[in-house]
Design brief:
Blueprint (H helix, E strand, L loop, with lengths): L2 H6 L14 H20 L2 H41 L3 H10 L6
Length: about 100
């Protein structure tokens, strides 16, 4: 199956995190989790409710910024692909002259 078919059938999920262990990220997640657990045990009533709202708002910010960053990266990738497919011989030759290539 080609890329487009894989995407159509749901076999490509760019929103799934597929990365190997990353020490700074893992360390930050553990610290966040530990602090969240401690505060959840220590807080009660209105303070616990406010804390949970803060955590939920932070999650929403992360999710929203992740989607927006993905869209920006995807658009930039498409623009690079389009630019590389639009072959203009005069421009390529002119660009190589500026970079120290064949001078006339």
């Amino acid at each position: 199956m080609g890329f487009i078919e894989e995407l159509y059938y749901g076999n490509i999920n760019p929103n799934e995190k597929r990365y190997k262990s990353h020490k700074p990220y893992d360390k930050a997640i553990k610290a966040f989790s530990d602090i969240e657990n401690k505060l959840s045990k220590e807080l009660n009533g209105e303070n616990l409710k406010l804390f949970n709202e803060l955590v939920n708002a932070s999650d929403e910010i992360s999710a929203t910024s992740g989607v927006e960053n993905f869209k920006i990266g995807f658009r930039l990738g498409v623009q690079m692909m389009c630019d590389s497919l639009l072959f203009n011989e005069n421009r390529v030759l002119r660009d190589s002259e500026y970079s120290g290539g064949n001078s006339k």
